[in-house]
Amino acid sequence: MSWVSKTLSSTLGRKLLMALTGLFLILFLIGHVSGNTLLFKNDGGEAFNIYAKFMTTNPAVKILSYLTYISVIAHVVYSIILTRVNKAARPVPYASSQASTNSAWNSRNMGVLGTIILIFLVVHLQGFWYQMHWGNLPTVQYNGEEYKDLYTIVKFAFQQEWLVALYVISMAFLGFHLSHGFASAFQTLGLNHVKYSPAIKKVGLAFSIIVPALFASMPLYIYFMN
């Protein structure tokens, strides 16, 4: 068995992959939320549509997209494997009072939070990512160049109360997931230190609040302002 196979089959190796893919997805969230703030721009969707075309046609971005897909799949698969391994190693669950004392709620329910986020992700990809790549979208022209009008699709989607509610609730779950996962990833990679760990936890907490709040604010803004 090669060292790669040994690493991927060991608990430590799986945790390392979870940490690395998690940190990569955190970087993706920063880029994604930054670009999507163009939805707040009062220009009829021009900046957002230009951005959407760039993100789906630029070769470098395409490579990063494939890495993101791989990271999402690996993160989900290894989270399921680790959850099963942990349950097998501890067939008799702790009493609820003891579990509450020993760990935070989000730490104990990372699998549940991740499952909810995965369901949301499927809905999100089908509604926007799939439509941008293969859907029959209307087109607009800016400076003589044709663009797919993804902004109109987003605007229409976020006039539906159930979808806005789904996004807001899912972002709350994402916040809980990130609040544990951010610091946990650094700890798994051995980057914990008496001096720096408190700062990492504070940055992780701020990140887990700010980024999901920004994502949640977008459907709310479109729903109430249009």
From TrEMBL:
Gene Ontology annotations for the cellular component aspect, listed alphabetically: membrane
Cell cycle keyword on record: no
Keyword annotations: Membrane, Transmembrane, Transmembrane helix
Keyword Membrane listed: yes
TM ranges: 63-81, 110-130, 162-183, 203-224
SUPFAM superfamilies (UniProt xref): Fumarate reductase respiratory complex transmembrane subunits
Source species, domain of life: Bacteria
Cited Gene3D superfamilies: Fumarate reductase/succinate dehydrogenase, transmembrane subunit
This protein's name: Succinate dehydrogenase / fumarate reductase cytochrome b subunit
Source organism: Cecembia rubra
